[in-house]
Every structure is written in structure tokens, then in C-alpha cells.
Amino acid sequence: MTAVPVFTARHVEAAVPPERAVDAVREAFVAYARGDWTMPPKVYVPAYPAGDFRAMPALGGGHALLKWVTSFPGNPALGLPTVTGLVLLSDASNGMLEAVLDAGAVTALRTGAAAVLAAETLGRADARSAAVIGAGVNGRAAARTFIARGRDVLLWDVNRERADEAASEVGGAVAASREDALAADVLVTVTPGHEAVFGAGTLRPGQHASLMGADGPGKSEIAVEELARVRVFCDDWTQASHNGDLVHAVEAGVIGQDAVTELGAVLSEAAEGRRTPDEITVFDSTGLAIQDLAIAAEVLDRYRIDTNDEAFSGVQTIESP
After folding, report:
1. Which residues contact 221 (CB under 8 A, 6 or more apart)?
2. 17, 72, 74, 319 - which has most CB atoms within 10 Å?
3. Any bridge partners for residue 7, and if so which?
4. CA 96 to centroid of chain Cα atoms
5. Architecture of the CATH domain 116-284
6. Which of 262, 321, 295 is nearest to 87 (CA)?
7. At the top level of CATH, which class does the domain 2-106+289-320 belong to?
8. pTM of the model
9. Contacts of 232 (CB under 8 A, 6+ apart)
10. Which of 262, 271, 294, 266 is nearest to 111 (CA)?
11. Computed from CA positions of residues 294, 298, 301, 307, in that sequence, does the dihedral angle turn out positive or negative?
12. What is the 8-class DSSP label of residue 75?
């Protein structure tokens, strides 16, 4: 029998600081772009209108991963988290289970990392101000990651109390208004996706926006007209064109695959990123299993280096054949 560690949210957060999460997610994007890591399509199991379940597999770095995760936007009103689930990490050489991790913590960490990575990669070289719109768990993760990377950040949320709590928690500041937040050089939106944050003509020359909230059917954070007039990047064309902000523009016939660049292609230097200081760039993120794999593998690697590290105090194990 083999003892398999079970990492709670606390363990995941303690094991991988936000700045390391950015590097790990960058490495995953590059490995995927080069074909070294693989990722079958995400499977959605709808339970609408309440929410949905998602099964996300990936293979790379000697590991295989399956994330079984939920998205139930109405849960906070019931005192429950929006995102719950488990990440299973296995040895790709023999199929043996290596670790079980809290999916909510892994998701938040890699979402914040991907949002900031895209902003750093596609934003102007002289970009200074940053703002996060949406102060839930994943919005806080993005803000925390900006701060860890040495950038001050403004937070804005339709719920002022939630924005205040988030700013206090991560060390950011609350934007005086939605308009002040929207004026930042780099923007991250992590909203439920029920209505567009960016209407036609909202983004100004030189801005960058990482759209992290529209990760499932029916969601949108940007108007089709606005998406059609900017330079568009995504995490994965197949996934984003079916379940991201892109799907609406694709269905309207205003954007095709040739007009969209995957972030991994830019990071691996196979494609061009921002071309001019005045270009408006947008990153459409739907969340990739390779990102989860990067974080899960990082947690396990650190655990194996020093099981007695304070970050892993209280880790329980389960027996696996």
C-alpha cells in the first residue's frame, strides 16, 4: 500500500506562492504550445440554471491529472463556495495515484497566475496601473498575484463591502469608482459573466484586459463589437471558441481562428505578441487543465523535497494499492 497525501486549500496556498505560480503556469503554456504536454477537451456536465460540473484531464511532466470541479455562481448567497472539487494527480508511467488536492485552491492560484502572466506578456512595456474587477476568490487571487509581482492594484466590485474586504486581505486599494478601475493600464475581470464589463468603445489605446470570468456557455464579459475591434489572444482556441467570450464573436461571424493568437504561441516565441504601444490587447481565458497540472505538480514536488516543511503541517494521507 502507498500513502497518498491529501492537500487541503491551506496546504496548496502555503506551498506555492503567487510569484512561483506565474512561472509554473508560463512553463505549462510553453510545454503545451510545443506539444510536450497534452490536454483532451474539457467536459461540461450542465446542471443549469444553478451551475455546472467540469472534468478536466491533462498529461505532462511525468504526471497525469484529472480535475473534477464545479461552478455554482449562486452558492455564496447560500454560504457555500462557488468552486469546489478535487484534483487527482497520478504517475504517468504506471498510473498510480500520487496526490489529491483541493480544486478550489488550485483553480484560484492558476487563474490569478494566468491573468497576470497575460497582462505582463501582452500589456505595454511602460504599463503602470493595474485593476481587478470582481473581488471574489479568483479576483483576490489575481490581485494578490499582481502585488506579489511588485505592482500596485485597484479592486472594484459591485459589492463595495466585498471590495473593501478583498483590498484589506491582499493589500490593494479600492477603486473610487468603476470608471477609475476601467482606466487602468492593465485590467483583469473576474465576474460571473452575466453582463459585459466592456461595452463597445470602452477600451482605450494601449490598454490590456485579461478576461477570466466567461469560462462557460452563456457567459460574457465583453461586447462582440468591442472584441471585434481589438487584438485578441486566448488560452486555447478550441476551448475558448466554444465556451469563452470568443464564442459569441465566432457565432456572429466577426472573428475567425486566423484573427486569434494563443498565449502559449507568444510565450514560446512562435507568434507575435503586442505590436505597438497603442494596440489594445485582450486575453480570453477559459481555464486549462495544463495550468492545474502545473500547480499540482509544484505542490507535490515541494512536498517530496521536504515533507516536514511547515507548509505541509497537518497533511493527511490515504492508502492506495
Report:
1. 189, 191, 193, 196, 197, 198, 211, 213, 214, 245
2. 72
3. 101
4. 28
5. 3-Layer(aba) Sandwich (3.40)
6. 295
7. alpha beta
8. 0.95
9. 246, 255, 259, 260, 261, 282, 284
10. 294
11. negative
12. G
Domain assignments of the chain as residue spans, ordered by start: 2-106+289-320, 116-284
At 96-119, the pLDDT tens digits run 999 999 999 999 999 999 999 999
How far apart CA 293 and CA 300 sit, in angstroms, is 10
Q: Which single residue is written with the C-alpha cell 471590495? A: 163
Task: Return the biggest CA–CA distance within the chain.
Answer: 60
**219 in active site:** no
Yes or no: say if 132 and 39 are a contact pair by the CB < 8 Å rule. no
Residue 236: alpha-carbon gap to chain centroid:
12
User: Residue 228 is which amino acid?
Assistant: A
Residue of 67, 140, 151, 248 marked active site: 67
Tens-digit pLDDT profile for residues 11-66: 999 999 999 999 999 999 999 999 999 999 999 999 988 999 999 999 999 999 99
Contact 96, 197 (CB under 8 A): no
